[in-house]
Amino acid sequence: MNAVPRIDMIDTGANILALRKKNNLTVKSLQNALGFNNPQSIFKWQRGDTLPSVDNLVILADLFNVTVNDILVIKK
Predict the structure, then answer these.
(1) What is the pLDDT of residue 1?
(2) How many structural domains is the chain composed of?
(3) Which of 6, 22, 30, 34 is most buried, by CB atoms within 10 Å?
(4) Is the pLDDT of residue 42 over 70?
């Protein structure tokens, strides 16, 4: 039986952090682009505590000039 693919939350969070820094974006600039009142969700994503919603993944991909698949780290 093949292993079921899963999203590695910790590695995905690290990837979001790396992509944010690579694109010279601050947490505050992401917060503003996403229309969040506070940055807590972004910090949770970067720590791998939670994942962005599909809508927010699409926005992040656009901001980072990558695909959604480039953000998510999927392991089997």
Answers:
(1) 65
(2) 1
(3) 30
(4) yes
Cβ distance 36 to 66 under 8 Å?
Answer: no
Q: What is the DSSP letter of 56?
A: H
pTM of the model: 0.94
Which residues on neighbouring strands pair with residue 74, listed in sequence order? 7
User: 46: Cβ–Cβ under 8 A, 6 or more apart, which residues?
Assistant: 13, 14, 16, 17, 20
In-domain check, residue 34: yes
Give the Cα separation of 47 and 26 in Å (integer).
15
Q: Tell me whether residue 16 is in a domain.
A: yes
What CATH number should be reported for the domain holding residue 28? 1.10.260.40
**Side chain identity, residue 54:** V
CB neighbours of residue 65 within 10 Å: 10
Residue 3: pLDDT band by 50, 70, 90 thresholds?
confident
